[in-house]
User: Fold these one by one.
Assistant:
Number 1:
Amino acid sequence: MADVPDPSFIADLPPSLATERRGAIALLRLARAGKRNALDDPTVLGLETFFERLPEDIRAVVLYGEGEHFSAGLDLSELSTRDVPEGIHHSRMWHRVFDKIQFGRVPVVTAMHGAVVGGGLELAAATHARVAERSTYYALPEGSRGIYVGGGASVRLPRLIGVSRMMEMMLTGRTYGAEEGLALGLSHYLVEPGQGLAKAIELAERIAQNTALTNFAVMHVLPRIAESDPASGYVMEALMAAIAQGDDEAKARLQAFLEKRAPKVAHGS
Ligand code: 1HE
């Protein structure tokens, strides 16, 4: 795969991001392997540009990293020059960009390998499905660097692994390996070395076949329901269920199943 971005696909991306289009799937590669895909400002703002300019006919995104590691997190060389107000705005900038990923138009599948640390883990946690190769390991080294997470980890990670486990990760600087990460919910799939991208593309292709309305409900409505009180949640669910089933495409798919033209649910498929 070429190490240069494809400018014809999405314009104005920094050289640290490379894109490729495969039908309805967009591939987005962190392409700064020399710095272990550390996330500097141009890269984070480039992520925002990418998700803002995603063509309407793209139905899912696959995010992955070049080289030996998914991402070494925040570019630490940028940190030393920031004062307190700048630090606040910088963190809020990451929040804005990662929110555009989590609550964007299309689901994002991340293929992870090697280090998924600090801001790299925050980025992966903002995506919707995560595949880990066996080399993957996770850490929040902010504690030992004398800083604090700033890319949304305090909000997203406790929802994945719990407050206590995140607390302990930050206090002790421990790492979790790929198998542990699978058990904890940091990844959804564990695959052999070199298989992450292919698995992520396979998942993205399945996701792309869902109706846009179902993907919207899963990405935008489900997490809001999960954060709301049960009584409101049930009402929201009822409304969303009715809206989804009213869609012509949903009716056509249900009819196809009843007429034995649609696949059955099969374990292992
Ligand atoms: C970097 C960064 C970086 C590497 N910022 N330049 N993140 C961390 O604390 C993780 C820091 N990185 C590492 O622990 C290691 O680099 C790795 C385990 C990821 C990879 O090790 P290795 O041996 O393959 O690479 P390396 O030799 O350490 O690094 C290669 C180059 O990348 C080197 O630069 P060079 O010019 O000397 O070649 C490193 O300086 C550079 N590099 N990681 C800048 N992170 C919104 S708040 C989020 C807060 C955080 O994310 S804190 C966690 C930061």
Note: The first helix runs from residue 41 to 52.
Number 2:
Amino acid sequence: MFLGLDSSTQSLSALVIDPAAGTITCQLSVNFGKDLPQFDAPSGFIPNGEHGEVHADPLMWLEAVNLLFTKLAEATDLSRITMIAGSGQQHGSVYLDATFDQRLAALDPAGQLAPQLSPALTRTSSPIWMDTSTSTECAEITTALGGPEEVCKRSGSIAIERFTGPQIRRFSKLDPDAYAKTARIHMVSSFIASVIAGKSVPIDFGDGAGTNLLNLASLDWDPALLDATAPGLGEKLLKPAIATTPQGPVSPYFVEKYGFSPACQCALFTGDNPASLVGMGATSPGNIVISLGTSDTFFASMPGPKTDPNGFGHVFGNPAGGFMSLICFRNGSLAREALKNELGIDWTTFDITAIEATKADAGKNLTLPFYGPEITPRHDFTTPVSKGTPAFEAGTQPYHRVRALLEGQFLNMRLHSEWMEVKTERIRLTGGASKSNGIAQLVANIFQAPVERLEITNSAALGAALIAAAAAGHDLPTLQDAFCIAADGSTILPEPETEAIYNETLPRYKALLHATIS
Ligand code: XUL
């Protein structure tokens, strides 16, 4: 059996697969806000950060590991797990001193992880992907490299606020002493992986490409980017590797405390989106994945690294080899939730009733779908939000606002994915909101492609479990054929009459967007 973990923005989840039986035998989750209220992070991050800072407490992630494994040990026989892999919210970073590895090796199973590892932290909080505080550092890195094209050519993305490199640079400037004491920098993925392996393990190519530091041609840290980012940075990072590389046995801490076999091995952790590419059965061309989570993401495998000329999209390593493209929209579920709360309606009313009731109005009420700073397009939408055309704003009805927000989100996605030049033959939808038939129909109509949903919604944790099995020698495509299957009756076809409507709406949406942000 193989265990996949997913340490995402709002929760830590586990999923166990039995490849011989072709079944998922256990799925569990710890929600940071609900299950660990002592950290005062209802959505998984520390609220009210200043200057665009969004940080999380790494001790909360460690506490979640203990809680999740306690639940797992009750629910399943962990001695049957052969290999563990995982994924983490991308870009976030953890800063540790030279004692980290010794502390990992000496963990006392009688105690919890957080108090034993906290003395190794050189930075008490971890910047995460929602952070927008590093515009100055992005500009500095870009200038040092000679322009955005050069950063993008090397790393697959222009210098981006949430990416790990600019975040490291800001830390090195704000607190040079603490930076100097930092012997090891981990991403969320490699931090949790290291705790489980009982020693520091590398960052993988999937998550490593989200740092503005990994050279996509050499698949190693880029010397010029390292130099432009912070002093002595290369020594604080381990050489990156592909996620399916076994790293040795699980830490004795987990053997003694939770009943793992000492023979159980650890593979690497990757980013949540690259893991999701695996879990959605989309590691080879032909499928587009849209993931509706805290952020919405749009991604697909790609044979070679092709970059976004506008600089919004990214290229990451594909855990199955090769590359993937990804576009991230910060105003995902948080925007849908904000409007739902503002209107005082429940999800059923939001998803089904509102979309059904306003069918005849497809494409009529244009709205920008932003409730706060956005990544794609990169803009600080700080003032209230989903701004529509004046006529729409004047005559707004609650249900129309739901349709307009959702149409705005997916028109924005269609517009900003044009550079990928992939024919959208089939879309696989995942994440919490993918359960909604109303939303699935809108996606099918706006992209004019069939939309499939898999039985499981946590595709990152499934992807991680499949990576674990692949690391143990199982054939990944065969595993994907068995596990990544569309749920019966879940496929939604586009309504052909909407094709012309959205073809005509897209340029109008583009004009509204440009009029607002230029
Ligand atoms: C991707 C991104 C987000 C996080 C969410 O670039 O920033 O999708 O990975 O966990």
Note: The domain at 2-272 is CATH 3.30.420.40 (Nucleotidyltransferase; domain 5).
